[in-house]
Amino acid sequence: MAQGALRGPSDYSREPPRHPSLRINAKRNHGPIPVLDDIDSYYVTIGGLAGGPRRLSLDDIRKLPKYNVTATLQCAGNRRTEMSKSRKVRGVGWDVCTLGNATWGGAKLSDVLQLVGVPYHTEITLSGGKHVEFISVDQCPEEKGGPYKASIPLGQATNPAADVLLAYEMNGEVLKRDHGYPLCAIVPGVIGACSVKWLDRIDIIEEESQGFFMQKDYKMFPPSVDWDNIVWSTRKPQMDYPVQSAICSLEDISAVKPGQAIVAGYALSGGGRGIERVDISSDGGKSWFEAHRNQKQGVPYVAGNVTSYKWAWVLFKAIVDAKGDTEIVAKAVDSSANVQPESVQSVWNLRGILNTCWHRVRLLATPDLRSFM
């Protein structure tokens, strides 16, 4: 899975305030990072039910029209630690920072697939292909030493507006090894596990990828399912992520001087849906007011507007009065009127993915901060 570094181009250089006790997770992978130094012999094989196979070198892909797409990649396990406090889950204990935003440069997958005879907006090929599988060169323990793999629907892959990229640049520079050099599949608006690094093959297949991570990992089950009664085949692999927000300027149980406190962070939603508003409460959710939102400095953010990045996070900021101990709450609403659920119990699942409940931080107002240092 690829994750983008928390920075962007000159007109989008602002970052959300850093979580006080955490480092931002700027990259993620499930196996050792491979070394691919011999670019002259590097190629990606396009095959499966598309015919072929056909080998494309990095130069072949660079000859296609280049697109820059600003997108946030978010791990499905973002905020898993909070979910585990309700009921223990399995997985790495991420807090609110398992995501990153970058501007990716590369060729659109829809253009690449045209080279092997798959037109734009194809839902199914004549030979029955309905999904596109990305296969890496890395080796994962969960795949018994085999490569990491994931797939997306063919209709999404062949839709130019979906902005699925074969990226060779990140933030205007050659892709770094940790981020998938020399070529990484970037799938905006979808959980980060579908953005596959170090591409080796791209196959058109009939069903979803049968790899471990799509079949026995990134699926969301109801709270009633546990490890004794789970049946993996009853759920589809997770694709789009739900609407999400998190406060990054304050840590839970923060000690602050009485007065005004800055509440700032990020909000985003999957599928290219914009953020219609971010609501802030300074009394635990009894009353609300709207936070200011922005992406580019000096350019008003409007969800769905051509001046806004539809795949990128939206930064929010508000000022609250911290006169005494209080609970600050943030919740986002996307352009389809989807809103974050109130409680973590309603979205709890044994794998700890997609924790999108209201984000809460408690403030302890004290005139003397030395006792907390």
UniProtKB/TrEMBL annotation:
GO process terms (BP): sulfur compound metabolic process
Organism for this UniProt entry: Panicum miliaceum
Molecular function per GO: heme binding; molybdenum ion binding; molybdopterin cofactor binding; sulfite oxidase activity
Pathway assigned in UniProt: Energy metabolism; sulfur metabolism; Sulfur metabolism
Every Moybdenum cofactor oxidoreductase dimerisation domain range: 236-363
Top class in the EC scheme: oxidoreductase
Entry protein name: Sulfite oxidase
EC assignment: 1.8.3.1
Stretches of the chain forming a coiled coil according to its record: none
Keyword Transit peptide among record annotations: no
Organism placement in taxonomy: Eukaryota, Viridiplantae, Streptophyta, Embryophyta, Tracheophyta
UniProt cross-references to PANTHER family, sorted A to Z: OS12G0442800 PROTEIN, SULFITE REDUCTASE
Span of domain Oxidoreductase molybdopterin-binding: 30-213
Keywords, in A-Z order: Metal-binding, Molybdenum, NAD, Oxidoreductase
Signal peptide residue numbers: none
